[in-house]
């Protein structure tokens, strides 16, 4: 059990160490908002629903203009005992997926570098990053699984094709063997006919010589 907790701790620590979170400004709901942001190791189509699901733990999630994701009364105990206004935006920037978060803890008081709750807010964000990382890992493993399944289907089809090719080759071989046997019989017939022709030719030549003799004999009798 200790090993399990230690492993989870190391995983979380590793994710936290690699999470780069910055303070900045972003236009949300047609107004400039102060806050903090990070880049996500995920596609926007996966990051957006994952972020909305994570925010549902804090309150009712609303969709604003231009892709804004809002929780008007977000309850995040680690940041404030009272509900806070949370506005966020997921967008693509230079082929990277950016998550910007603006959390107002009071009038004109937004969490960013130097804010007393900045550390708590980034730690809370890292919980989402860890969850998203685990989801990405599942997607990655599922992609590998699907690739293996596709490879299996590919090789099954190749194996079936090889079987069909072998069957075709077998039929062709059988036809060739049959044709070879027929050719062998045909050859034997030709050889037999050849021998008979030689005999007939010899007999004809002998008969021709004999007939010539008879013709000469008949001529001599006339003279």
Mean pLDDT rating: 89
The major pleated sheet works out as: 7 strands, antiparallel
Count of individual helical segments: 3
Secondary-structure-derived class: alpha+beta
Contiguous uncertain segments of 5+ residues: 1-17
Describe what you observe in this structure.
This protein has 223 residues and is of the alpha+beta class. It is 60% helix and 22% strand. It has 3 helices and 7 strands. The chain has helices spanning 2-18, 44-55, 118-222, and strands at residues 21-28, 31-40, 62-63, 68-74, 84-93, 96-106, 109-110. Strands 1, 2, 3, 4, 5, 6 and 7 form a 7-stranded antiparallel beta sheet that branches. The longest helix has 105 residues, at 118-222.
Produce the secondary structure layout:
Layout: H1 2-18, E1 21-28, E2 31-40, H2 44-55, E3 62-63, E4 68-74, E5 84-93, E6 96-106, E7 109-110, H3 118-222
Question: What key attributes describe this structure?
Answer:
disordered N terminus, 223 residues, alpha+beta, 7 strands, seven-stranded antiparallel sheet
């Amino acid at each position: 059990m200790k090993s399990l907790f230690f492993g989870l701790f190391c995983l979380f620590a590793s994710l936290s160490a690699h999470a780069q979170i910055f303070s900045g400004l972003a236009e949300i709901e047609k107004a400039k908002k102060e806050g903090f942001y990070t880049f996500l190791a995920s596609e926007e189509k996966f990051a957006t629903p994952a972020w909305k699901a994570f925010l549902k733990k804090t309150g009712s999630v609303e969709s604003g203009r231009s892709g804004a994701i809002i929780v008007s009364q977000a309850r995040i105990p680690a940041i404030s005992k009272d509900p806070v206004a949370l506005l966020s935006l997921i967008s693509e920037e230079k082929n990277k997926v950016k998550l910007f978060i603006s959390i107002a803890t009071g009038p004109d008081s937004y969490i960013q570098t130097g804010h007393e709750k900045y550390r708590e807010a980034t730690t809370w964000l890292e919980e989402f990053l860890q969850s998203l990382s685990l989801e990405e890992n599942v997607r990655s493993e599922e992609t590998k699984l699907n690739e293996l399944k596709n490879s299996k289907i590919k090789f099954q089809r190749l194996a079936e094709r090889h079987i069909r090719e072998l069957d075709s080759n077998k039929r062709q071989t059988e036809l060739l063997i049959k044709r070879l046997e027929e050719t062998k019989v045909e050859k034997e017939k030709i050889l037999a006919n050849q021998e008979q022709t030689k005999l007939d030719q010899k007999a004809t030549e002998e008969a021709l010589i004999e007939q010539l003799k008879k013709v000469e004999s008949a001529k001599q009798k006339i003279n």
